[in-house]
From TrEMBL:
Keywords noted in UniProt: Acyltransferase, Transferase
InterPro entries documented for this protein: aa-tRNA-synth_II/BPL/LPL, BPL_LPL_catalytic, Octanoyltransferase
Sequence ranges assigned to domain BPL/LPL catalytic in this UniProt record: 1-128
EC number of the protein: 2.3.1.181
Homology family: Belongs to the LipB family.
Protein's pathway: Protein modification; protein lipoylation via endogenous pathway; protein N(6)-(lipoyl)lysine from octanoyl-[acyl-carrier-protein]: step 1/2
One Pfam match: LplA-B_cat
Protein name per its UniProtKB record: lipoyl(octanoyl) transferase
Amino acid sequence: MLCHPVLDLRLLGLRLRTHVAALEACAVRLCELRGLRGARARPPPYTGVWLGERKICAIGVRCGRHITSHGLALNCSTDLTWFEHIVPCGLVGTGVTSLSEALERLVTVDEVMPSFLVAFKETFKCTLVSEDSPS
């Protein structure tokens, strides 16, 4: 699952590192809502969200003129064998996991989206407008 919020950090009164921490908190909250209590952010250089020594969510933010792009990538039912051919995020000795692997069942993006929206609204203290609601 990818989330690339486009936000004006000035309007939100956020610094870039605070925004990254908020994305991490959002992913941790999502994991909690899905029943994974051990998910946590680690101090730099270990950005993202981790279950033990394995990363479940990568964070990568671009910011230009205080406007963010890119965001987070949470592994739901990702084929983890691809990560055997690279050093994920350049961190030697760490691994990668997914919600499906951690929960020992298939977890789809569609299943996760409602929990993600709850976690995003809680973390960023906002209201999300549904695509099918009147403008």
